Amino acid sequence: MRINNLVEGFVARGHEVTVLTGQPNYPEGQVYGDYLRDPDRFSNYYGAKVVRVPMLARGKRSATLALNYLSFFTSASTIGSCKLRGQSFDSIFVYAVSPIMVAIPALVLGRLKKTPVFVWVLDLWPDTLSAVGVIRNPKLLRLVGKVVSWIYNRTDYLLLQSLSFDENVRKYCTQSISSERLVYFPSWAEDDFSSEVQAESDLLQRDDSVFTVLFAGNLGDAQDFPSIMAAAKAVTVDLPVRWVIVGDGRASEWLAQHVAHQQMDNVLLLGRHPLEKMPALFAAADALLVSLKTNEVFEKTIPGKVQAYLASGKPVIAMIDGEAAKVVIESGAGMTCSSGDVEGLARIVRAMGSLSASERDQMGLAGRRYYLKHFSKENLFQRLELLFRKATFRRTDKR
């Protein structure tokens, strides 16, 4: 995860880092037995101190997940504040994946310790809840919107994962917010994707007799696998293509049943595998696929896999709209079609498959150059470090 990278990177730069988090229970939904047997073993991460607070495990149901979130906000704000009593900090950073309420304990600590709070906005609440159908009740959405507004207005700096987030975030800032407080701060790829691949994949052998398209990541409704499978069916007629899908998620069962029922022998479902196996797997492919259903929220989001794909130096096939499509086009890293466009996806797969290996290599190199210029982890860490220092100096001057 990128927050792990951030912790490792700032420790390596000589900073003292403390992580406030809950008991480990993701993704299985139960607190890990190894942690319960020896909690002290998990109190340090690459030199960073890890402070954990009790919380309800997320379980497998929506109700237990909601209680998991609520218990963390409460526990981290109260017990977490007690555990960090007497300690001072120069900056407080929030990795704000869903739900945005993870920022509440940080705001409590920021107020107690008079420390600037940075919230890295990686998801647009409450709009995402409406877009994916989690909440449809207008009154409930307005209530969540008020909570989001309360958080945004009390945060010193809002770091935006995408340039397109700006308008949405401002909508929930009822107070006047300066451009200095809204900072574009995109994601980076894990180091594994930036390193030269040393070994062949033990999950997939390279096969130059077919054009290999690889999808890696979450297999969910938002990734629109029915459209991908329809395109795969259409392309098979005139191009030898192998579709490789790595990962798991809510669509996994549907996908397995569909592939079996349609007898799609050219679709390989490899399941979930650790991150360190991905670079070699990417190297065995000819192109990497990213897809996302379209709506007002998703169009503003850049899926994290886009940076990983660009860093790997492989050409990209994108069935996606908005900011992510813009990145692929601007970088020259690949080809795009509109979200949900089955015929369009079939068309660009045929077009990519008809190119020479050298032409595809040039696309991959263009994407890699774009990644180094816009999403390099080293450059982003330097920017964040500078922001932390400026905020600290500004807070000191005010005192």
Structure described in brief:
This protein has 399 residues and is α/β, with parallel strands linked by helices. It is 45% helix and 15% strand.
Query: What value does the Rg take, in angstroms?
Result: 22 Å
CATH topology of the largest domain: Rossmann fold
The CATH architecture name of the largest domain reads 3-Layer(aba) Sandwich
Outline type? globular
Adjacency order of strands in the biggest sheet: 10-9-8-11-12-13
3D architecture notes:
- The longest helix is centred in the N-terminal third of the chain and has 22 residues, at 62-83.
- The two termini are 36 Å apart.
- The chain folds into 2 domains: 2-189 and 377-398, 3-Layer(aba) Sandwich (Rossmann fold); 191-374, Glycogen Phosphorylase B (Rossmann fold).
- By secondary structure, the chain is α/β, with parallel strands linked by helices.
- It has a 6-stranded parallel beta sheet with strand order 10-9-8-11-12-13, with helices on both faces. A 4-stranded parallel beta sheet has the order 4-5-6-7.
- Helices cover 45% and strands 15% of the residues.
- Helix 7 (165-171) links the parallel strand 6 and strand 7 (182-184).
Secondary-structure blueprint:
Layout: H1 2-12, E1 18-22, H2 33-37, E2 44-45, E3 48-53, H3 62-83, E4 92-96, H4 103-113, E5 117-121, H5 127-131, H6 138-154, E6 157-160, H7 165-171, E7 182-184, H8 191-194, E8 211-216, H9 225-235, E9 241-246, H10 252-261, E10 267-271, H11 278-283, E11 287-291, H12 304-312, E12 316-319, H13 322-331, E13 334-337, H14 342-354, H15 357-374, H16 377-398
Parallel strand pairs: 1-3, 4-5, 5-6, 6-7, 8-9, 8-11, 9-10, 11-12, 12-13
Antiparallel strand pairs: 2-3
